[in-house]
Model the fold of this input.
Amino acid sequence: MILSGYEALFFWIFGLAAIFAGLLTVMARNAVHSALFLISSLVSVAALFVLARAEFIAGVQILVYVGGVMVLFLFVIMLVNVGAEERGREEIFNNQRQVTASLVFCLLLVGGVLYAVNRGYSGLQTLHPNPASQDQLHATSATGSSQITKDTERVGGSLYRYASLPFEIASVLLLVAIIGSVMLARTLRQEASADDVAPEVLQEELARDPLLAQLEPKSE
Amino acid sequence: MQKYIWLVPLLPLIGAAINGLLGRKLRFSETLIGGIAVGSVALSFLISVAAVYSYGFGGHAEWPKPYLTSQDGFSFNWIPGGAVRVNQGSEARIQVELQKNLEERLAAMTPEERSQTKGIIVGASDSPRSALLNIEWSYQLDPLSSIFMLIVTGVGLCIFVFATGYMHGEAGFYRFFAYMGLFMFAMLVLVMGSNFVMIFVGWEGVGLCSYLLIGYYFDRQEAANASRKAFITNRIGDFGFALAIFGVIATFGSAQYTDVFNQAKAYPIELLGQWGILSWIALGLFVGACGKSAQLPLHVWLPDAMAGPTPVSALIHAATMVTAGLYMVTRTNVIFQHSQTMLLVVALIGAATAIFAATIGITQNDIKKVLAYSTVSQLGFMFMACGVGAFVIGIFHVMTHAFFKALMFLGAGSVIHGMHHEQDMRRMGGLKRYMPYTYWTFMAGWLAICGIIPFSGFWSKDEILWNAASTTHIPLGWIVWAIGTIAATCTAFYMTRLMAMTFWGTERFLEAPAGGEADEAHAAAYDKGLTQHDALRPSAGDRPRHEPGEHVGPVHEDVEDHLATHGHGGHAHGAHRPHESPPSMWVPLAVLAVLAVIGGFVGIGPAFRTVTRSEHPGGRLNIVTWLNPVIWNPSTREFNAAEGAHEAVVETEHAAPPTEGAEAGASVYGHTGFNLAHSVEAATHSELATEWIFIVISLVVAGIGMLLGGLFYVWRPQLAAIWAQRLRPLYAASYNKYWVDEFYGWAVTRRTMDVARAVYAFDSRIVDGIVNGLAGLSRLFSRIVGGVDKYFVDGIVNTVAAFIMRLMSPLFRAAQTGFTQNYALVMVLGLMAAVVIFFARDIF
Amino acid sequence: MLNFTLAFLLQQVEDDRFAQMRHAAANPDLSKFLVIGALLFIIGVAGVLTRRNIIVIFMSIELILNAANLNFIAFSRYLRETGSANALAGQIFTVFIIVVAAAEAAIGLGIVIALYRNKETIWVDEIDLLKW
Done:
């Protein structure tokens, strides 16, 4: 799968962008900046997906990951982070020892990964010396050179036929996640109103069980 | 009709079951309970009568062959025993087989050959035999069981009717009749059973019912003691009986009467001094009979059994249960007649019992105890009869005794009832004016038991004494006769005494109050607020609940006078005159009195053959004719043939010409020594005269006894006390029943308890000591091990653990920083390590 | 960190394998994809281990997942071109990884909110309840 020409160019642009954005995500001081850098990293990766002829996945990435998960992140940052940062500028990195150890290990990881990729790739090359170029695989349409593949169709077919069980399980997983997150983020008052507990009873319960009060948000 | 005899035991059982199970729950009235009980027994009686009639006198009469219900299909395969080894009595069996082989050989030879042979050798195998034992539940109707069926159901019916009146007002009315019905069932099974196991079932059943009925007043100590005594003494006899049954099965391979007796009749007779298997069996049987029929030395329970209600005493201890021993001895007369030693034992024990009990009876003051000892004595007479070989006469005496003894017991019950449960004859007297029915019926019984002609007792008792004097079965027949005659005298004496003290003379109850509550002890207890059963001095007899203070005594002018005399406080009093009993009580008395008068005519003896023109008049109605087929004849070695052959029986009894003493005693049983009858006959040269001499002697002694009784208790009452004083030691011995109970208590009871105590001490000290010692050892061991574990092992563990902990704990604690990212770092490290390991082969 | 990375890249440029690298750069193939993925992964790991802010840690985790996705997709493309029948498995895997990431983000952020309500802080080094 040798990319060439414009594809190579875009590959490098987006690849480096992704790495750069990732780096900045980790190193940004402000959490919102971190979120935004992450978004750009994700978008770059989506572009890389397109270059790898996985258009559907790219679309899913943008829609779900960026449009759903990152927005959620931003919401939570707004909920949680703002108050914390109002208390003043504090350290964003951990203590010295932790950071040093982490960096050491990450460098080791880098070396290991690069070495492994190179070694592995030479092995791959002996296995498949002549991978078909992308041009040969795609039938040209009547209008000329069309590079849009039938992958989406095939992915959908596979998903609903051969991977239908994981698909269903995934939907159940999402259901569980929904319920779990609702449960986790409840306040005491919400719990009480759901159970139809009267306010006086609520006060009694609070008085009797001090731990219950911790479910109350201290700051509104 | 014979095929319905299986109903005869079943109906009383059903009646008993209904009364017992439902009587209290559904609260039956007394009429209903009594009706069920009396009705069931009456039905049984009717069926028995019809069956016996059709068996003996009907169109297809089967008499004299025994009728088994298995012939008509009623035979229940009760205990399919399987193969049993028949290994007893092999010597006798070999002899029988040798004899049989010899006879066969002789029969096969022609007369010439027979005259020419000098000797024959025959052989017999002594290989172990085995038989297929199958014990079935089927009934047998034969001459012997038919008589007993009629006695049990007939006399039982009278007593049941009496009991409905006597037990009136009892809270346990239903229980009484339930037990009585159960008793009837057991007794009927006993007499109608077709094998030894059934008779044993009935034997045990009547023992049980005796226990239940004697202890009917279960809250009274003496009744409970008496019932236990009866049962245990019975049990001792049952042990012997059971051993005998085992012997029968091991010798003959079967328990059915027909099988056993057909085999036994061929066995050789064991004369005096020889003791073989049949003697052992007979010994066991007789031990059982001693227990059940209260012979020496197992007689002690019968007088105490008077603590039960009077109908119980009448039925069980006069007419039926105690005669079961007689039934059994007569049933197995084949076996007894094969053992001369046992016949002698039976006769001597019977005679000893007769005189023993008779001498005790003359000093007793409780009316029921007198009758009880009289029963024991008369049972001795019956066994005397069996011992000398006159089994038929023994059964005849059973029959007549049932009539007059039941009559007298019921009469005594009537007296007791009328006297408000007073049983001490010293407080009675002159009752003939107050209770005429009772008096006249009792008189019939009195004359019967004394042996006055033509009452029933005369016929049977006279025949017993005659057979004792003239027996050729055993030696010492004349001793048996002498003892029997003396006992008859005593019988007449004490029965006359009873009549005098109870019915004649002055009314002693007018001077001192009599009756259940008249005891000073009772009165004192009552005043203290205790119940009548808490009285300090136990009073005799059955005493159901009744009005406190009820008694008979002097009639008072008014209430104040009464209270002043008696001082019992203000409670109610009963009547003060003895009263006649209701018809439910005196009608059975009348029926039994009629039987006591005419019942002896079925056994008119051969002495009267000049009048009746027959040795045994009456054909099949004559008891000797009727019963003879059941008796085995040692001379012919077969059971007696019926009817025409009874002449031969009589002749064989007096077979030898009575001219020489040497031949006089010769018979199958060898020379039996001095024979009184033959000596008299040798003197008079006339058989008839001999017999009449003995009859006259027995009548004379009876008359002497009655006259003495009249003298001591009617005409010169002070003589009784004077002679009691003069013969003080004899009087004391008699009054205290020869101290037999005390002796048993010392020798048997207390020694048994000593053994029990010794065994208990052994068990608790030695055996338990060992066990406890072992347990103690275990505990000690465990303490040691525990100590080692606790101090040594745990010490090591604790030290080592503490050391390690002090060493390592700060190290491990440092790892728990609580800082999540530290954990994440460690995870990454682990991941790296995993990757390296995973790809180690490729990397290196 | 940024300096370090740049220095590293520059090092590569100044290295001897200039022509190789230029050719390789002009015609990127599977290995380049994998390298990018790996780098993203490592950056994510570094972020998880070093940052104090919980939310940023979560975002680093997202980076890690993303890197894995890239890996899958690259192999999917490669395998299709080498003719394996299971080529699409990579894309399908990716779908599920995205699903899982979404669910995990939701739950995780719910936990963060609950934690914040309790402890009033988002700095992980202040949340050391499990400390001995």
Summary: Chain C touches chain A through 82 residues (CB under 8 Å).
